[in-house]
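Appendix B, record 7
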Amino acid sequence: MPGLLLGDVLPDFEAETTTGTIKLHEYLGDSWGILFSHPRDYTPVCTTELGRAARLSAEFSKRGIKMIALSIDCLEDHHGWTKDILAYNCEESSCSSLPFPIIADSKRELAVALGMLDPDEKDKDGLPLTARCVFIIGPDKRLKLSLLYPATTGRNFDEILRVVDSLQITAGKRVATPADWKPGDCVMVPPNMSEEEAASLFPEGVYTKDLPSGKKYLRYTPQP
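Structure tokens (predicted):
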């Protein structure tokens, strides 16, 4: 099945969305982006996901992220479903739109091209639904991170925010982030960096954990 690999440039596709026709690269501009797909409109897990994404939209905006969703239904369904999502979020009835567009991919053309289909989940006609994909796209339009969930498992958008923080700090600094890292925690010094260079780049100091092997590869420094 066609799909994207880390480092691939996202196709500059044109699509109809709830906010009008977009071209992906023009929509993103110089920003980071998140493209996330959904199996179907008017489904329970998808409704909770888009509701959560909407509630966190200000956090994504603070990080310079433009969000865009994709579902395999038509624009009319997207607009009707939006009202349910807003009601799930207990938004005022005067609020009629989400803070990001939803792509209408009723022919599944984008889902196929981007490798988003879930072969195990099918609609009433026996056609595969889209999986719960997350593509995080850098300002260079290249795929920086890909997450793929089955239709039955909702995504953790707090974790998506966390990995955005990691991607952005490691894109700008020569560091890595350990398991369960959160902003403000210590980061790790790459193993291919010499001690002299590390001392120069990280004036707040580098801590090396002693290990039975005697190898000095677990090196930490305060987040720059």
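Remarks on this record: The longest strand covers residues 32-38. Residues 157-172 form the longest helix (16 residues).
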